[in-house]
Amino acid sequence: MSVSPSSPAPAENQPAAASVDLAWRRHIPALAAAVAGIRKASDDWDAVSDSFCDTDGWPVNEHGYEDGKVKRDAEAWRHVEVFLDHGPEVLAGARATARSADYAEGPISEDLRWLRGIDATLEHAGQLQREWDQILVLMDASMPGSRKLYEDRAKEERNADGWHYADELAIRGPALVRAADHLARRADSAHTTRARAALARSALEIRGTLPASPPAPPAPGAPVPGRSR
User: With the C-alpha atoms ordered 80, 86, 89, 94, is the resulting torsion angle positive or negative?
Assistant: First the structure.
C-alpha cells in the first residue's frame, strides 16, 4: 500500500540517531487518556439523551437536552485540546519511524491506514482554536469589563463546532496511540540491541589493546631454570 501523498515518507534506512529519537513517545499516554475522555463524554451523554426525547427521538425536554449537549461538548473539547498540544508531535514521530513494510503488512498496517485523515482533523480543530483565540482578543478590545457576559455563549458555540472533531479523534485517535506505541517500543528495542552490541565491541577492543600479562614469578622453593641443585 502506498503512503498518503500528504504524509512524510516512512523511515527506511535512516541513520540510527533518527530512528531512536523517541522524545515524542512521552506524549502517547496523554493521547490515550484524551481518547478515553472523549469516549466517556459521549457515553455519558448517550446514557441520558433518550430520557429527554420521545419515542421518535425528538426532544421533549429541550432545556435538559441542550444542557446535556453543552456539557458533553465542553468535556470533549477539553480532550481535543490535548490532541492539539501533543498529537502533531506523536504523529510526526510515528511516521518518521514507520517503514514502508509497516504500511503493507504487520500488526500496525491497519492503524497506519487510519491515520490518513487525522491530519485534516487536527488542522481543522486547530483552526477552530485559533479563531477562538482571536474572538477573545476582540472581546478584550471591544467590551472591556463585560467580556464574561458573552464569553460563555461564544465558548459553547466553539465546543459545539468542535464536537465533530472530537468524534473523529475518538475514532482515529486509538489507531495513532497503538501505532505510536508499537513503533516506539520497536525503535527502543533496536536501540538497546545496538547499544549492547557496541558495548560488547568496545570490551573486545579494550581487551585486544591491553599489554600481555607478565609471567607469574616462580613459587618459593621451585628450582631456577638453568641451574643445577
Answer: negative
Enter the C-alpha cell of residue 228. 643445577
**CA-CA distance, 110 to 102, in Å (whole number)?**
9
CA distance 133 to 172: 26
Residue 183 pLDDT grade (very low, low, confident, very high; cuts 50, 70, 90) = very high
**pLDDT tens across 81-91, in order?**
999 999 999 99
Q: What is the DSSP string of 87-140?
A: HHHHHHHHHHH--HHHHHSSTTHHHHHHGGGHHHHHHHHHHHHHHHHHHHHHHH
Q: In which region does residue 226 sit, left (phi positive, over 0), alpha (psi from -120 to 50) or beta (all else)?
A: left
If one counts every other C-beta atom within 10 angstroms of the C-beta of residue 90, the result is 24
C-alpha distance from residue 117 to each of 44, 112, 113, 130, 169 (Å): 26, 10, 9, 20, 10
Q: What is the dihedral of CA 93, 95, 97, 100, to 10 degrees?
A: 180
pTM of the predicted protein model: 0.74
Least confident of 14-28, 34-48, 148-162, 170-184: 14-28
